[in-house]
Queue: 2 jobs
Job 1
Amino acid sequence: MGNFPTTVKHCLSYEELIQDYPWLARWLQEEKRALTHEYPEYVKIVEVGPRDGLQNEKEMVPTGVKIQLIDMLSETGLPVIEATSFVSSKWVPQMADHTEVLQAIHRSSHVRYPVLTPNMHGFQDAVAAGATEVAVFGSASETFSRKNINCSIDESILRFEEVICTAKQRQIPVRGYVSCALGCPYEGPIESTKVAEVVKRLYELGCYEVSLGDTIGVGTPGSMAKMLHSVMKEVPSSALAVHCHDTYGQALANILTALQMGICTVDSSVAGLGGCPYAQGASGNVSTEDVLYMLHGMGIKTGVDLSKVIEAGDFICKALNRKTNSKVAQARGDYSVHCRMKKINT
Amino acid sequence: MGNIPTTVKHCLSYEQLIQDYPWLGSRLQDEKEMVPTRVKIQLINMLSETGLPVIEATSFVSSKWVPQMADHTEVLQAIHRSSHARYPVLTPNMHGFQDAVAAGATEVAVFGSASETFSRKNINCSIDDSILRFEEVICTAKQQQIPVRGYVSCALGCPYEGPIEPTKVAEVVKRLYELGCYEVSLGDTIGVGTPGSMAKMLHYVMKEVPSSALAVHCHDTYGQALANILTALQMGICAVDSSVAGLGGCPYAQGASGNVSTEDVLYMLHGMGIKTGVDLSKVIEAGDFICKALNRKTNSKVAQARSKSS
């Protein structure tokens, strides 16, 4: 019956009450609406542009450009920057320079630099290169798991278990990702209970946080709420993050929904780097700039300087010779003209 | 000079303007490429088949200021009007209202502002003077039993004044509502709003006007439109303005987007189990049509994703 006072629910039947006092229905509805949502005071932004973003760009990005991008991002206040991926260069040639990147970046003491490690081989290479945090990447869809990493979900979890155990012994934190949390390009909708099951397994194995990925951006506030409801029965919200793709323009609305449900970690990509590999020309990662604009507009702290992120986005877009996917960056890009127009008009 | 804010037209010579703002030259050129009347008619007819309950057909503003709408009478008379849809037209004053009624309009809309500066720059008069003009239109419309919708621009920010006090927005909305507008649409004209400012503004407006008489008109210039619309829905608003293919750029930021795409709004609402009565695939078709006709890309991410994935 929704958010109605307890007394009303217990004393009389609701239907009889509304029949006798029609104004009460409106009042009860207005009470419900007047309650503003609770939002976290602080949201942690996990910047995935240098890895998830650049990995999906068609052009090979020169190593020097990647290093400069990460160094610029390190100056923005972002607390976490996913630096690179220790996946075999046979599968992901764009990340072949992982060791060089990790060793050359200037690591800020205020920032963490997780790297992707799909298996023990990648993990060992990462540690040898100086990694102090790693991430493993599972799926809620059996078909996606087989097509993307050539094994079933169960087999992938076995691989991760080895990585996570070894990482624990070395006191290296491990972050988990679960893709297809809101839909799969092959299977379509994914049962939220299945998502919850995979998330729970990664969490219980020892991932300090699990990021829920809307891999093809098909989610809406409806499916996001439903999925989170199932997942949060198994794993506390403090150990969860959302990784929304903006392929259908729903990312910010989905992130807002997640925040309303208690999630306070959001993955995003500077300039919205990283297209959706399943729909050519469609957008992928949500832009860090657009997320920050929304959060700051809601009075939510992030510790991140939006204008510095815009600068980093400008840099990488020029280097890649492409337009930004961030609407904030596009609008601000003409801000200087906007200011002048303002001056003329006054 | 096309749809350029009045101040720009009056303050500087055209040549000096283009010298200082080269992008403005190409923008003005684009504006000169008028949409053929038959294309407008076909677009509206296609939209009439989608289930959309309200389609704003045209504007009876002087063609001196908005030449793109000069064919208003021809458009209104030629469209096939579905019995399931309403076709309001903009009428800024009595002259426009009379022309609209003569052309067969059965619903009109008036356009005010919560920002004094924007009102003066955009329609050459103060908020108070504009309300006086609308009062005349609304009274006459009432006598002829023609419903009037109100718009309040700059509800979440003004390109000249910056942030606008929500109490000021509430005051203007209340005046339009009490004059007789059956609904007032709250416009985030430059798309600067966020769920924070949307909630605050609505909180004040809804103290004066019931949510059933309000609508939100969000621009997506900063990518915030869907999040803002979601916030409005959560506060009880159930009318949302949107534009097929996200037509209509933001005149205050070159290259920036403007209206939120109807396709993207529908995708969100349907995904939440909210009924609209609208067929998304037919809206996508109408969007494809108009984008081909205008030789431009759609601003709708849903339309982009759907066309690529097929």
Job 2
Amino acid sequence: MDRFSWTTGLLELGETLVIQQRGVRLSDGEEKVKFDSGVLLLSTHRLIWRDQKNHECCIAVPLSQIVFIEEQAAGIGKSAKIVVHLHPASSNKEPGPFQSSKYSYVKLSFKEHGQIEFYRRLSEEITQRRWESMPTGQAMQVNKDSQAGRIRAVGIVGIERKLEEKRKETDKNISEAFEDLSKLMEKAKEMVELSKSIANKIKEKQGDITEDETIRFKSYLLSMGIANPVTRETYGSGTQYHMQLAKQLAGILQAPLEERGGIMSLTEVYCLVNRARGLELLSPEDLVNACKMLESLKLPLRLRVFDSGVMVIELQSHNEEEMVAAALETVSEKGSLTADEFAKLVGMSVLLAKERLLLAEKMGHLCRDDSVEGLRFYPNLFLTQS
Amino acid sequence: QAKYKERGSVLAEDQLAQMSKQLETFRTHLQAFASKHKQEIRRSPEFRLQFQHMCAAIGVDPLASGKGFWAEVLGVGDFYYELGVQIIEVCLALRHRNGGLITLEELQHQVLKGRGKFAQDVSADDLLRAIRKLKVLGSGFGIIPVGNTVLVQSVPAELSMDHTVVLQLAEKKGFVTVSEIRDSLRWETERAKQVLDHLLKEGMAWLDAQAPAEPQFWLPALFSELHGQD
């Protein structure tokens, strides 16, 4: 709460009020403070709190100080809250009610509701950062000519009004969008319920449902993005779509793999494939699920998972263990190498270079020297000289 | 008995036929929604957030597959999957400097820079959702909350609770010392050193041995000055 400053609560020129809500309590992190009952105002530039009983008591924090915000749903006897995480106060901050605070966040409790709409508006303002493009009165130059000053003031009010109208129009569109969204979600919820009831029936009739029907059901779940309620397995594993995708990938990746020494990490593949597609991109899960089927479909590529969890696609003809022999030669020539050095020499990504060296170590060909200077690999002389 | 089995299959068939029909109906609703509001999804981070909240509430993952209705009809998939590609590229480009750790703010800044002046806005929530999806690719994507912000990890380095706690401690000033760890966390020197050594080895921390009082361990991820030196 040391990020707040005292303020008159009057909006500056160029600052617009977005929304206000009565009945809000302000807390310093987890601790209650004397700001128990106030009106919370959101403008394009600041978050302002004014005491309902004593209007002189008014504090504000610039929106630029906000790192991120979270919602806390209401509970029994507890109001819904918004948690506002803040940057440390800047050194030239105007004086406020607190010099220091042990918390980097404040909590806004909506005792008279209104949290949902306020959260929505606050998210929007934080995202749009309108304060950056709308300099406030303080930043504007003082014009000595009072006539021009008056005209400019009127001009600004005119612009503000236009902006306000435009915002109202956008607001209307957004409200409609939200309403339509709610209705859509109601229907989506029905689909989820239906899929659950079917899944239960399938469970009961275990053995009486054909393979074909299971595949159909999985593809329906995939369409809706519903996790399989029976097996809880990853979305859409083993569907027609992924089988087709696997075959496509085998075609697309043959040449890139050959160019890269027969092996690519899954993140590289993800980027390559999606950049090439441009539209109708694959989800990471689509890619993984398709790659899991490569081997069983007897395609010329396979998925391999290293001990570290790193996943790669290899040509069937690629033999990582053989590459290890070549790696050993390279390391021996240079005496020792780090993953970075090896990667540069051989022309591989550091990620895969490291995996190859680790594999070589696992196979006993290399030894490691793990110091603060980095991880360095040496030929395993214990093995060769014993 | 054969008759009972038959009936079982017929029931399942009926149910699936019903679901198939309802799916088509739902798809129509989704198309109607898309024709009015598809732009809103791409344009407004705040609308996306609301959309994601509601999907999560009813148990639907709109980003599970590019083949799902949400991606195909509403186009919500492309936004996040492309963002995923951009995130991977930024992290790869900066890895040699920060060891594979970057603050969410810096990531957002770099991604927006790469997207260009006229691209749609990308919120912190958008990035976090895209990152959570990237985890499944196995290259070590993860999210570590530290103090006022969030660190994004993009390398398969093992970071235990101990490492995370030290990162959180370092977040305030961008660096940490063995004494600070001992005082704040009440650890033995050995434990503190092990954690710091690991971070050094991974390239996530740099050592300033010339610091006045005692060596300081700086985290390049927590500095924006360094990133300005392109």
